[in-house]
Amino acid sequence: MGRKWNNIKDKKAEKDKNTSRIYAKFGREIYVAAKSGEPDPEANQALKVVLERAKTYSVPKHIIEKAIEKAKGGAEESYDELRYEGFGPNGSMLIVDTLTNNVNRTASEVRAAFGKNGGNMGVSGSVAYMFDATAVFGVEGKTADEVLELLMEADIDVRDVLEEEEIVIVYAEPDQYHAVQEAFKGVGITEFTVAELTMLPQNEVTLDEESKAQFEKLVDVLEDLEDVQQVYHNVDLGE
């Protein structure tokens, strides 16, 4: 799973280059999570997960507070969570998660992004079966053996624990996200290099340079769309 973590890390680094874009997307996601239940993360697990992710992207406090206050204020903006699946060049697969207040606009923009950049949309289920929903945490200051022992003592089963470049990566079932987080916090670990609920490919593909460039353009265009929150894929981007 090491290569998959590198892809997550690379994607995070790329998003960090455009902070206004990532902050806007988190603002929308925080608002939707806060509106779905109590605007208090201790009483709203969905909101708590989003806020933990926001911390790893260094989303400023005022962005978070503004989104939560907007939800508290009874704003009536309504967003639909929609997932699109599609194919890029040479066997590449993509999952595109969106939050939208205009389904027709979003569908049209996503379809156009695929069509103009060497890809094509698939039907629901055509790609997702090749990915696994996964909780991923990255922590520093511990060895893989120490983290594994910690999780075992907390009676938490995980898929894998790996150590890469002084960062320990934990892969767990999505429903274990909160349990893993609390196990870390129980030993004083409250900062994570990554804390994500993500979709990891079961297998990765390697593209030639031309196809890789085309694929990266496709991902960039998709991620630039206002309604797109996450793009997952099965391409090994390498170093």
TrEMBL record:
SUPFAM superfamilies: YebC-like
Keyword Transcription: yes
Coiled-coil regions, chain positions: none
Localization in the cell: Cytoplasm
Pfam families in alphabetical order: TACO1_YebC_N, Transcrip_reg
TACO1/YebC-like N-terminal domain segment(s): 3-74
Domain TACO1/YebC-like second and third per the UniProt entry, residue ranges: 79-235
GO biological process, one term: regulation of DNA-templated transcription
MF (Gene Ontology): DNA binding
Gene3D superfamilies recorded: 1.10.10.200, 3.30.70.980
Keywords annotated in UniProt: Cytoplasm, DNA-binding, Transcription, Transcription regulation
GO cellular component, one term: cytosol
Membrane-spanning parts: none
Domain of life of the native organism: Bacteria
InterPro entries hit by this protein: Integrase-like_N (IPR017856), TACO1_YebC-like_2nd/3rd_dom (IPR048300), TACO1_YebC_N (IPR049083), Transcrip_reg_TACO1-like (IPR002876), Transcrip_reg_TACO1-like_dom3 (IPR026564), Transcrip_reg_TACO1_YeeN (IPR026562), YebC-like (IPR029072)
Record-linked PANTHER family: TRANSLATIONAL ACTIVATOR OF CYTOCHROME C OXIDASE 1 (PTHR12532:SF0)
HAMAP family: Transcrip_reg_TACO1, Transcrip_reg_TACO1_YeeN
Recorded family membership: Belongs to the TACO1 family. YeeN subfamily.
Name of the protein this chain belongs to: Probable transcriptional regulatory protein GCM10008025_31820
Provenance organism: Ornithinibacillus halotolerans
Lineage, broadest ranks: Bacteria, Bacillati, Bacillota, Bacilli, Bacillales
